[in-house]
Every structure is written in C-alpha cells, then in structure tokens.
C-alpha cells in the first residue's frame, strides 16, 4: 500500500492567446502548488479492476473521475497484471479553479509508478498525463512552472519568494468550459506578462512578481459571479498585497508577505466566505 498527496494549484498568471484549430485555447500561464492536499491510498488488487473509493456527493467514483482515467492509462500502457484500489480523501474544493481533479490524476500516475515499481521518470508520466487533461502534466511535477501550449508544455521555475496565500472559495461552482465559452478574445484587456512574472520569480523579487500577476479569465467569471469581486475587494481592504482569481475560478487567493497581514485577511473574510484557507506555496 502506498500514499500520495495531491496538492492544489493556483495561477499566478493566466493568459489566453488564441483559439486553436483543435478547439483548445493556446495559453501562457504560471502555476504553483500550495499546501492544501487531497490524500490518495493505492493498493494492488487480486483481480484486474480499478476500484475508486471516494465519499463526496459531487465526485464520481467511476471512469469519469480523472484518477480512474490515469490508473487505466497506466494499466493498459504497461500491461499491468493486477488492478488497483484507490481511496481518495478530498480536501481540495471541487470545481474551484484549484485543479483538484487534475492533481488527483497526477498523484495516481505517480502512485501507480511506485506501486508497480515501473521506474518511470516524471517527464514520462507527464507525457501520459497530457492525454487526459491540460493541467495534469504540471501537477505531476508539482513545481512552479511557466506553462504554454494548452498548458502541458512546462518550463520549471524556482519556488516563488516566501509569502502567505489566503484562499477564499465562495459557495458556487464554476465550469471551466462555460468560462472559456464566454471568453471574448476580441475584448480589450490589460496586458498579462507571464515572462516578466517568471523573471521576477527567478530573481526572487516579491514586489515585482506581484506587479505582474494577472488572469485573463477573471473578468469573465466576475461577470457571472460578482461575489468574486467582493472577495477581492475584501482581501485588498484587509491588507493583502494582491488578490486574484485562480484558474477559471471561483476561488480567489490573496498574497501577504507577513503572517499578521495574512491573519487579518482571513478575519476580514469571515463575514462573506465560509471556506477560507491560509496556506504556503510549495513549488
Ligand atoms: P481546474 O482548475 O483544472 O479547472 P477545478 O478545480 O475547477 O479544475 P475539479 O475540482 O478538478 O475542478 O472538478 C471539476 C469537475 O471534474 C467536477 O465537477 C467533477 O465532476 C469532475 N471530477 C473528475 N475527477 C475528479 C476528482 N478526482 N476530483 C474532483 N472532481 C473530479
């Protein structure tokens, strides 16, 4: 039996460049992981089945689950002679912009590799991961990265300068697909410079990193759910250095260099958001 942690991600930047012929958007974004985890336990079975145990109303326990899909790829690709029971303990909020499902799939790729002693590199696992989702390759490595293509091409970056991350997940779910459908690429928008942000991270320059954070999808999701703007305003008023939506939302994160600053942001959120986490970047 082996254990794997699946950590949530946040987007420091997210820019959508154009819509490709295959229907995906070409993106440029910097993602990093934070210490908010789902926990997975993987055990070999006597038969050749994949059994997924997860007790959550909104998380499927069949082949719709990304962790199941990852296990299936590994079983077929490497002709594994026994199946696997995966027990998934969810902590990462669902449909939140924190890549919970993608991270569970990534942890399954890593876990299957260890359980069956396949000796595959993370790069090989990340290649398999790209077959079932755009963010899963990033999650396989779990390292801060500049991600391009449809998100699966990675340039690893150093860990961002130390700071506190306050996550606020409003009581709504957002479908990534819906947000991309509503995105109007012809609308004017503020420039998002992921390369400048990457350079700031490489230089360990917190203030410069913050200056370049941005998310092209933020305005789209705010239009559907104004609570996101309220959460951003609340965080900024309470002293966050920056507040930004992650992924396609609805989770908003605030960054704070100092612990007492982060605590006052958490306190300020108490009146308007039930699900709040104060965490650290891992990547
Ligand atoms: P992203 O940030 O990559 O867009 P997300 O955090 O917005 O992802 P998820 O929590 O991954 O969204 O879930 C989106 C949908 O995927 C859920 O509604 C659920 O039905 C389905 N799903 C499939 N596998 C999982 C999983 N392992 N955990 C959670 N949801 C899953």
TrEMBL record:
Keyword Transcription set for record: no
Domain of life of the organism encoding this protein: Bacteria
Catalysed reactions, semicolon-separated: 4-CDP-2-C-methyl-D-erythritol + ATP = 4-CDP-2-C-methyl-D-erythritol 2-phosphate + ADP + H(+)
UniProt-recorded name of the protein: 4-diphosphocytidyl-2-C-methyl-D-erythritol kinase
Residue intervals of the GHMP kinase C-terminal domain: 198-271
GHMP kinase N-terminal domain sequence ranges: 65-143
Protein encoded by which gene: ispE
Protein keywords: ATP-binding, Isoprene biosynthesis, Kinase, Nucleotide-binding, Transferase
Coiled-coil stretches: none
Active site: 9, 135
């Amino acid at each position: 039996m082996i254990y794997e942690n699946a950590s949530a991600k946040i987007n420091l930047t997210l820019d959508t460049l154009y819509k490709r012929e295959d229907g995906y958007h070409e993106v440029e974004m910097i993602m990093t992981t934070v210490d908010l985890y789902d926990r997975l336990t993987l055990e070999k079975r006597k038969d050749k089945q994949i059994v997924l145990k997860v007790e959550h109303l909104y998380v499927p326990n069949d082949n719709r689950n990304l962790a199941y899909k990852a296990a299936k790829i590994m079983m077929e690709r490497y002709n594994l002679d026994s199946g696997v029971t995966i027990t998934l303990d969810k902590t990462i909020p669902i449909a939140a912009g924190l890549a919970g499902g993608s991270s569970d799939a990534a942890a399954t790729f890593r876990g299957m590799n260890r359980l069956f002693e396949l000796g595959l590199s993370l790069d090989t696992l990340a290649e398999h991961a790209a077959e079932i989702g755009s963010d899963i390759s990033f999650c396989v490595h779990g390292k801060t990265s500049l991600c391009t293509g449809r998100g699966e091409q990675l340039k690893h970056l150093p860990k961002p300068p130390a700071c506190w991350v306050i996550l606020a997940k409003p009581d709504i779910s957002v479908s990534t697909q819906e947000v991309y459908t509503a995105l109007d690429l012809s609308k004017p928008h503020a420039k998002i410079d992921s390369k400048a942000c990457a350079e700031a991270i490489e230089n360990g320059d917190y203030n410069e990193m913050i200056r370049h954070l941005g998310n092209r999808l933020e305005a789209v999701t705010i239009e559907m759910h104004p609570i996101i703007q309220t959460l951003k305003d609340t965080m900024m008023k309470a002293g966050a250095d920056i507040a930004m939506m992650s992924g396609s939302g609805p989770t908003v994160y605030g960054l704070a260099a100092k612990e007492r600053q982060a605590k006052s942001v958490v306190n300020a959120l108490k009146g308007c958001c039930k699900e709040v986490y104060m965490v650290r970047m891992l990547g």
